[in-house]
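Q: I'm writing up a methods section and want to include an example of the input and output format. Could you take the sequence below and give the corresponding predicted structure tokens, formatted cleanly so I can copy it straight into the document?
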Amino acid sequence: MAGMTRPLLNRRLDGFGTTIFAEMSALATRTGSINLGQGFPDTDGPEEVREAAVRALRDGRGNQYPPGPGIPELRSAISEHQARRYGLAFDPDTEVLVTAGATEAIAAALLALLEPGDEVIALEPYYDSYAACIAMAGGRRVPVTLRPSAGRDRFVLDLDELRAAVTDRTRLILLNTPHNPTGTVLTRAELAAIAQLAVERDLLVVTDEVYEHLVFDGEHVPLVTFPGMRDRTVTISSAGKTFSFTGWKVGWVTASPGLVNAVRTAKQFLTYVASGPFQYAVAEALRLPDTYFSHLADDLRAKRDLLSNGLVEAGFDVFRPAGTYFVTTDIRPLGDDDGFAFCRSLPARCGVVAIPNAVFYNDTNGGTAFVRFAFCKRTEVLHDAISRLKQLRS
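A: Here is the clean output for your methods example:
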């Protein structure tokens, strides 16, 4: 604008442009490619859950503003879920908060708990909104990088590096397990060490557990179950990944009353409330029998194996994930070492879209050779994608 010398965008968000997910999804649409980039299923979740949303709409439940903390039915269902799955007791009235997806929960938690200049340790590579939310809160991101294991079959956390990253300015650890994009599921021993560190250094921990039911090897253990963590952990999850309704944007926070109050204070000035009718449906979904959750994991485990094996046949080095929707690959065996260029050329080369992992790194050079593919798609779509990807070797 004429006469304006100051940039329009807040300097904290300098460098945060259009997300890679938007870019790659648009590229998939424009080229007619198979989209294995963004992590959303290509089929809806359980019919009974969808019908519960329809029923709520027709009955006039949630069509107006729901209560700020979330409808009582959903808060009770979340509390019951935590008790049934993990033996955790949360008061639905004071220790549960419903949010517009996990992304809002993360933003609200960081805005509430950080002061400008506070340091936040985040496992790298990380979900891209982490960096933006930390920046908006005025915090400083301190990455601790997950690196390929000696056998190059998975990514691992160096606990000594994590300990060394803590300073007198560290306010909290932002922890994601099961981990996107690497698929790492932290072990009980690793989580116990993180909990001990948090207690020793008086740190808060915000845990992103949206893939809690998408574990194929090992087990998901909430950090809050460890000694000393009940009053210093903000646990976040959501319905999108578990029930394959990612567009509904229903997430939640469970924590001690003081932490929930803090997060709610920030959250009320973001969306205030959202997803009214869908909250009723998710309340019913969380009460589905345990067989639903085990069948979900079994189905995705088979799809993980299908795509992982196909990527090996196509010439990639593959890090087989223990959880999540995603498999990370190394493109160097294919003669490429630039993930951005590789992903932008992939639709023209074989009609498939993927995501360059470099966007999830503080220093993009750390992930330049890694590319992420999503396997939360129909089996026939994965077979088609594998057939196309094998063209890279010809």
